[in-house]
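Entry: Peptide/nickel transport system ATP-binding protein
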Amino acid sequence: MNDRPAPAPDPADDGALLSVRGVDIDYRTGRRSRVTAVRGVGFDLHPGQSMALVGESGCGKTTLGLGLLRLLPRTGTVSAGQVLFRRKDGRRVDVRSLAKEDLRRFRWNEAAMVFQGAMNAFNPVLTVRDHFLDTFRAHERRGARRTRADLIEHSAALLELVRLDPARVLAAHPHELSGGMRQRALIALALALRPQLLILDEPTTALDILTQRAIVERLTELREELRFAMLFITHDLGLAAELADRVGTMYAGRMIETGTTRDVFHRSRHPYTRALINSVPPVAGDPTVPESLPGGPPSLGALPPGCSFAPRCAHAEPRCSRTRPELDVLRERPEGLSHAAACLRAGDAALFTEGATR
Ligand SMILES: Nc1ncnc2c1ncn2[C@@H]1O[C@H](COP(=O)(O)OP(=O)(O)OP(=O)(O)O)[C@@H](O)[C@H]1O
Ligand code: SF4
Ligand SMILES: [Mg+2]
């Protein structure tokens, strides 16, 4: 393998809400075996910014989201790096070292996650009202305890924020709601304690296009109203383009391109991001045929040496199988928005002008 020693962690970006530095996440797969599902990932997210994480199934998006909030299953561990978060009082803490009680307060109060698959996130025997009451009671500071009537009134206001009818939804059990309603109820629940960071994992997958649209529009409005930062995990590049200020492409556990949505989608400097974009079916009327990407991602336990994408890359050179490309900055921008790509040929302008992305 060509893995170099991990670089020293970069200093945190002072204005950033979240500074992720060199994060590795492992899963234990047997008594003596483990796989590394996320490798050396780093990025900054500023207050109010929204970042989309894109990439094929299994590239580590959910693992990264769960790892940032220490919500991994028991077999998962953040084994290296830092997850620096600027708290409401201005102090910066490493989420990895928060004690249990502090971690409980951090989740929901400062950072919340809407999980992939809304049904599984609800307890089927509890009503939506019970979910709100439990969340408030478990995570509000002791001194701030409010009456049940106050909490229900607050829950109703949150449901109205996501355009749900509180009279109907509060008394309902999760199975009595449609998929889109459940998803919106989950978003309202995640916003209950006014977190500064909201992580959404595929929040609109499996919803019809009109419901998707309604949720996306509401999320955009809410972000403007409440100024939370958002990490948005999705397969849907159209949604990413619409909702995100910036995009991070992941491949086999690594971040391989990051930058503003415009830089990554319109001036991409990584063949994998290009392939993802070119594999999206064109809108009606566009005669361009989408290109499929040959092969599949490598097994995490047997990554090829050098660039992990080399076996599938149409532009691979012999050196690509020997040297692992670092995520190098191509264009400096403020507030964590620099354009960076992990490709040995990223500087080869001719390569990236031919066959430009749609
Ligand atoms: N509990 C687990 N134990 C072992 N390996 C796991 C576990 N959960 C996930 N993995 C592995 O980690 C890798 C990343 O999985 P993850 O769920 O983060 O991918 P993803 O990008 O979210 O995929 P999708 O788009 O399908 O949701 C995959 O190879 C997966 O098999
Ligand atoms: S480093 Fe080489 S193999 Fe990897 S993406 Fe760039 S050109 Fe392709
Ligand atoms: Mg996932």
